[in-house]
Structure formats: structure tokens, C-alpha cells
Amino acid sequence: MRALVTGGAGFIGSHLVDALVAEGWRVTVLDNLSTGTESNLKSVMDDITFCKGDIRDRQIIEKAVEDCSVIFHLAAVVSVPQTIDHPVESALINDLGTLYVLEEARKKNIKRVVFSSSCAVYGDDPQLPKKETMNLKPGSPYALQKMTAEHYMRLGYELYGLEAVSLRYFNVYGPRQDPSSPYSGVISIFMKMAIEQKSPIIYGNGDQSRDFIYVTDVVKANLLAAASAQARGQIVNIGTGSSVSINQLWDMICALTGLTIEPKYQPSRPGDIYASLANVEYAKLFLGFEHDYPFEKGLESTYEWYKQRKST
Ligand code: NAD
Ligand code: UD1
Fold this sequence. Notes:
By secondary structure, this protein is of the alpha/beta class. The chain folds into two domains: 2-170 and 212-239 and 279-292, NAD(P)-binding Rossmann-like Domain (Rossmann fold); 186-208 and 243-276 and 299-311, Alpha-Beta Complex (UDP-galactose 4-epimerase, domain 1). It is 40% helix and 17% strand. It contains ten helices and 13 strands. The chain has helices spanning 11-22, 58-64, 80-85, 87-107, 141-160, 186-195, 215-227, 246-257, 281-287, 295-311; strands at 2-6, 26-31, 49-52, 70-73, 112-118, 163-169, 171-173, 201-203, 209-210, 212-214, 235-238, 244-245, 264-266. The longest helix is centred in the N-terminal third of the chain and has 21 residues, at 87-107.
């Protein structure tokens, strides 16, 4: 069996590629290396087909899907503020790029597509936990783009019989998350600050909360989504069902590292969601998925990875 992983040189994608190779899949990666790196794939590079290219390039997608039975579609602009700064460019990737991938899947009779969506689609509705059946209220171009892409997935299922599965990840963290940009995920940035013994910036009062899920659990959800018969045509939350605030997060990192560094506070970011927490019933029902990593354990192994990375 061959799988195409778009965005496979990125943070989550590269862990998924590792797992697929370990399970005996043949894997093609399509990635333009805008935020991903070949070094994320160094342990599997000899075992995979790597296509450096853009999902906006239809010819390259056509080549990349050759012989595949499953597509894991992860390539995207992933930062909420980046899509606010660049709404058109991000829509061309997150929406039109997704449509190109789905169109190629349709033409080549690819059996299943597993799409990396986001809990951002729920927006700032105060109702918690977020359930898949809730009305969506996207509050950023990113959220709207993911919602639109989910609808293309639904149409792929309803009109063309594509086995489409959309996974709404909550906040993913773990080794290989790139901390180098202001658009990076909060845990990667906080790990970098802890290692450099500097104050992090907290946007807003820090009471905003997130349901953080370890990357290995997200990979497991993808593998289940590719295999489960009940997952066809579904949209499923991938979270843990518990959350921590950004203030608590920094306190936990201080406790883990023995630091006592006060954060600096800046105004909250436009489009930022206040509270986020997953209802995980559908994940259990449609995928048989439950997360394995408690937050403390995931945070500890993430910190170990960043520490080791600094010393090499
Ligand atoms: P990432 O930036 O590490 O991965 C994205 C990958 O896509 C990178 O390797 C990048 O080079 C590639 N890419 C970007 N634009 C491309 C294009 N036009 N053509 C080809 N490749 C392109 O981010 P990640 O955190 O691993 O995110 C993976 C997916 O998961 C994304 O779709 C993201 O929206 C989704 N997601 C992530 C989170 C999270 O907390 N990290 C949460 C919800 C959803
Ligand atoms: C993240 C993902 C997005 C995903 C969404 C699902 C990234 C870059 N973004 O967005 O792809 O769809 O989760 O929920 O992976 N913060 C600080 N200081 C910092 C950085 C962030 O206080 O230095 C705060 C932010 O204001 C926000 C929270 O931490 O309140 C999380 O921010 P971030 O990691 O960027 O994630 P989301 O915007 O939730």
C-alpha cells in the first residue's frame, strides 16, 4: 500500500511518515519546505519518495498521487495570525490547494483522504466542550479556510464517493515543532524560551485555554482514520478532553525545568480563541481513538527533545 503525505516534512507530517514507514507502507511525501525541513525526514529519507513541490502545482500533485490508495493531506499555512496577515495567499494554499488534492484523488480513484482540519473552525462560541455537531463560527481566515476545506471533503464523499475523513485537531505539540517564527505554536516557543532562560510573551491575560494533544496521539488518530470503516464521511475531534490555560502552561514548564521566570504580557492577538476543549466521544465511536499521553508526560518528553536539540 502506498500513501501520499502532503506536508510530510513538517512537524506532524514527519511523525506520520515515520509511523507509516514503520508499519510497512510505501510513502510519497509532497512538501514545498516552506516550514518543513528535509532533516525532519532524515531517518526515513532512503525509504520514501520525496517530491519537493507545491500543492498549488497540479502537475506535481498528479505525479505524487501515482499508485496511492490513501492521501493524508496536511500541507497548509498553519498559523492563525499568518492567515490574518496573508488572507489571499493562505486561501490559495489551504482551500484551492486542498481542492486540487481532492480533484486528483477523484481522477485517480484514490480510496481515502484523511484531512488535517482544526478545532479553530468552532470559533469563540463559549459553549464547551466543542462537539462536532455544533454550529461553526470561524473567527479567522485560517478557521474559515479549514471549514471550507471540510465542506470540499464532504462533497467529495457525497458526490464522488471518496472516503473522506476530516480530523479536527486541537492544539498539537511535541518534538520537531519549529519554534523559530513568531507564528510558531506556543509550546515550541515556550520551550525555546525556557532553554534560553528568557521571559516568554503571553498575549492577553493568559487565562485563555487550550486542549493540548501530543503528536504521537495525533499520528495514531490518522492511522485509525485511514483504516476504520465507520470513519468514512465523518468529521472527528482529535483532542484529550482536558485543557490548561496559557498561564498554567508556563507555570508547568517552570516547574519542569526548575525556572522562576515571570512572563511578559502583551495585548491579545486578533482572531485568538478564548477557550478550547474537545468533546472526544466521536473519536472513540468512529475511530476507536483515545489519547495515550497525559499532558505532563508529553510536556516532559517534548522538553527533553528541545534540550537535546540545543546541545547537538
Ligand atoms: P507544519 O508547518 O510543520 O507543517 C505543514 C507542512 O506543509 C510543512 O512541511 C510545509 O513546508 C508544508 N507546506 C505548506 N504549504 C505548502 C504548499 N503550498 N505545498 C506543499 N507543502 C506545503 O505544521 P503542522 O503543525 O505539522 O501542521 C500540519 C497540519 O495540521 C496543517 O494542516 C495544520 O493546519 C493542521 N493542524 C495543526 C495543528 C497544530 O496544533 N500544530 C492543529 C490543528 C490542525
Ligand atoms: C494552533 C495551531 C493551529 C491549529 C489550532 C487548533 C500553530 C502555529 N497553530 O493555533 O494550526 O489549527 O492550534 O486549536 O500550531 N500565545 C502566547 N505567546 C506566544 C504564542 C502564543 O501567549 O508566544 C498564545 C496565543 O495567543 C494563543 C495560545 O497561546 O492564545 C495558542 O497559540 P498558538 O500556539 O499560536 O495556537 P492557536 O492559535 O490556538
